[in-house]
């Protein structure tokens, strides 16, 4: 692809990795492995700008008997885990804790994106400054060696942290030995950074040579395992003589006959509990603009100017209502608008979900 007189390439590589058991090749052809996730006592100590409590200190290499008992009650770390994580003492063996679901990710994604000579490394955690430098330099040299002239010292490498998932910190081996907050929060053991460098270099080779990568194991879908502390709604019905989506209070138009920028028209609809269907990829509230003979969505509840509120009519009432409030932005075009409300409900717990919509009267903005 040509752009601005220069040849520009757009490409990417993305894989999932089980970070609890990656074999890493170290200097001198030595090998080591990453570990199931743990947190050390330095994690509980917090940082200088956000210290922890209960007497934990950064750099702690011992855990007192009280906290060992608490740890073992939650999950006693295996002998393998203790040996693998040294010199980190195991305060929480999160990689061995699975109730009600895994306490730490095992399968994490890494990704490399190319925009010409700009390379973005998408990492699923927080790299320390020196970890980031080492990763960037290693990937850069790998690209130069394998890119057949595509990459050189002008190639720029950027790290995009906390991307796609979160797996705490990634410290250097030297920082890991210190067991301050970042080292104690490096989940997968002392060779975590080496594993990231190794696996990113594999992606860099694939990107430079144009070869394919293996997707890797998919992370678990935990959607159906999420804890619910709020009971599901048990069934809704509107007041006698009305339907959901009917107006409870229509838009009150000013005496001038139109709203100005900065005004807040409000419409209130009879509406059930909005939690029957969260309308993912949809919306509860829309401001539509009349264009010709058609109503076109202009603003929805993604926009800060449009607010959706739901509440019961009063404490003793079984009837709910939804309030749509639009603070007309300065950028709004003059014209005719209306509110539209979308929702769903069940008549009883076991009945099917029904959907509805309702619209307010039209009003003018000038």
Automatic annotation (TrEMBL):
Zn(2+) binds at residues 126, 169. It catalyses: an N-acylsphing-4-enine + H2O = sphing-4-enine + a fatty acid. Keywords: Endoplasmic reticulum, Glycoprotein, Golgi apparatus, Hydrolase, Lipid metabolism, Metal-binding, Secreted, Signal, Sphingolipid metabolism, Zinc. It is found in: Endoplasmic reticulum; Golgi apparatus; Secreted. Residues 11-198 form the Neutral/alkaline non-lysosomal ceramidase N-terminal domain. Its EC number is 3.5.1.23. Its cofactor is Zn(2+). Transmembrane segments: none annotated. GO terms for molecular function: metal ion binding; N-acylsphingosine amidohydrolase activity. GO terms for biological process: cellular response to oxidative stress; ceramide catabolic process; long-chain fatty acid biosynthetic process; sphingosine biosynthetic process. Its main location: endoplasmic reticulum. It holds the Pfam family Ceramidase_alk. It is an enzyme of class 3 (hydrolase). Binds 1 zinc ion per subunit. Residues 200-365 form the Neutral/alkaline non-lysosomal ceramidase C-terminal domain. One of its GO terms (cellular component) is Golgi apparatus. Belongs to the neutral ceramidase family. PANTHER family: CERAMIDASE (PTHR12670), NEUTRAL CERAMIDASE (PTHR12670:SF13). This is Neutral ceramidase. It comes from Tagetes erecta.
């Amino acid at each position: 692809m040509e752009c601005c007189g220069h040849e520009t390439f757009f490409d990417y590589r993305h894989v999932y990795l089980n970070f609890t058991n990656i074999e890493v090749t170290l200097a001198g052809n030595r090998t080591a492995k990453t570990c199931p996730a743990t947190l050390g006592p330095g994690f509980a100590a917090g940082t200088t700008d956000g210290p922890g409590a209960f007497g934990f200190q950064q750099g702690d290499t011992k855990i007192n008997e009280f906290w060992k008992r608490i740890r073992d009650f939650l999950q006693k770390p295996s002998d393998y885990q203790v040996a693998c994580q040294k010199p980190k003492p195991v305060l929480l063996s999160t990689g061995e804790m699975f109730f009600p679901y895994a306490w730490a990710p095992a399968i994490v994604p890494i990704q490399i994106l190319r925009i010409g000579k700009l390379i973005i490394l998408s990492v699923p955690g927080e790299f320390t400054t020196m970890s980031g430098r080492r990763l960037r330099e290693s990937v850069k040299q790998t690209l130069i060696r394998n890119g057949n002239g595509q990459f050189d010292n002008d190639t720029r490498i950027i790290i995009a942290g906390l991307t796609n998932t979160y797996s705490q910190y990634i410290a250097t081996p030297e920082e890991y030995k210190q067991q301050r907050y970042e080292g104690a929060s490096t989940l997968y053991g002392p060779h975590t950074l080496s594993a990231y460098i190794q696996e990113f270099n594999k992606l860099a080779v694939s990107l430079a040579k144009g070869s394919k990568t293996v997707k890797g194991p998919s992370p678990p879908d935990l959607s159906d395992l999420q804890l619910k502390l709020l009971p599901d709604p048990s069934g809704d019905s509107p007041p006698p003589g009305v339907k959901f989506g009917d107006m409870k209070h229509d838009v009150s138009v000013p005496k001038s006959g139109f709203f100005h920028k900065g005004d807040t028209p409000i419409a209130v609809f009879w509406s059930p509990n909005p939690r029957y269907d969260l309308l993912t990829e949809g919306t509860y509230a829309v401001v539509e603009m009349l264009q010709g003979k058609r109503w076109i969505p202009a603003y929805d509840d993604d926009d800060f100017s449009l607010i959706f509120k739901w509440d019961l009519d009063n404490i003793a009432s079984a009837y709910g209502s939804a309030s749509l409030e639009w603070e007309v932005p300065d950028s709004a075009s003059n014209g005719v608008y209306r509110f539209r409300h979308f929702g769903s409900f069940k008549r009883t717990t076991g009945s099917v979900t029904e959907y509805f919509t309702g619209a307010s009267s039209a009003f003018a903005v000038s």
